[in-house]
Amino acid sequence: MVIKKDSDVPEESMKEEGVKDVFQRVLIGTKDGSSNIIMRCIKVLPGGNTPFHSHNHEHLVKIEGGKGIVVDDNGKENIVTQGQSLFIEGLKKHQFKNPFENVFEFICIIPNPEKIP
Q: In CA terms, which of 34, 36, 64, 68 is 20 to 30 Å from 28?
């Protein structure tokens, strides 16, 4: 069993193309012995965003703080707030944006990308 404090996990800037002012902490991952799933905490600063992208795997998202916008596969913008959860299907385009004044933070659970065919 691994028990960690979120605040003890170093925060890293996400460097992917199309990312602006987004940081992540890998709360539980392969370094902790989890070979199949990864849990990340994502923080989107005001004015920040992830790219409008898709990938093979599905993922679960739990909004932990602030509010933000999730853009769906059809380009529809949906405001999400603390206490909401999302399921994003594999191969469906999506994007997270924060046009608001406060930090937008969420937990994202994905399969280990190294194990995805």
A: 68
Q: Which DSSP category does 35 fall into?
A: S
C-alpha to C-alpha distances, 106 to 35, 70, 116, nearest whole angstrom:
22, 11, 23
Query: Tokens for 34?
Result: 């989890």
**Structural domain harbouring 16:** 10-112
pLDDT along the chain (117 residues), means of 10: 94 94 96 94 98 93 98 97 96 97 97 75
Q: How many domains does the chain have?
A: 1
CATH label of the domain that carries residue 61 = 2.60.120.10
CA pair distance 117, 32, nearest whole angstrom? 22
The tokens 């299907």 sit on which residue?
A: 89
C-alpha–C-alpha distance, residues 38 and 65, integer Å: 20
Distances (CA, A) of 41 to 11, 73, 75, 117: 9, 23, 24, 24
pTM, two decimal places: 0.92
Q: Are 21 and 44 in contact (CB under 8 A)?
A: yes
